[in-house]
Specification:
It comes from Alexandrium monilatum. This protein has a domain of about 60 residues. The protein is built from eleven helices and no strands. Helix 10 runs antiparallel to helix 11.
Length: about 180
Amino acid sequence: SAAISACEKCGQWQLALAVLRGALQARVSPDAVICNSAISACEKGREWQLALALLASMPRLRAAPNIVSCSAAISACGRGGHWPLALALLEAMPQLRATPNAVSCNAAISACEKRAEWPLALVLLSLTPHLFGAPTSISCSAAVSACEKGSQWELALPLVAAMPRLRASPSVVSCSAAVSAC
């Protein structure tokens, strides 16, 4: 677990997978923590397909996917530019017995942001208070950035202005994105 986690932190996804493979060959059953670290390593290495394959293999390895597994896989899909997969995974989380939370929703909003899918980012942001509590600075900033990438300044500026009311502090990222949208 510590070795894979160290590989993840250093962005060494190949080494993380080699350690996991070695554990499996030694007949060591990986738990969710080990799998989560390997999925996160793949996410950091922009290896979204491997992250999804690891998530899919967890039940076979007798490691139950959890919120961390799913959120890391959603982030991996986002980094790879595959927002439809990220949204499908967010939707499928209850079937995996993982309840979506603000972190998984933020990962999905960020996935939309990376491809300028501002309408979907705003829909997810609007659902956040009903499902997960108040939006965070991260979720708002990602939605503002999605609006910026979609040249939607008339949506980005009011969103930044509303952040204090939502108890989400505007950040340098959100303010810069709003200005860039203009």
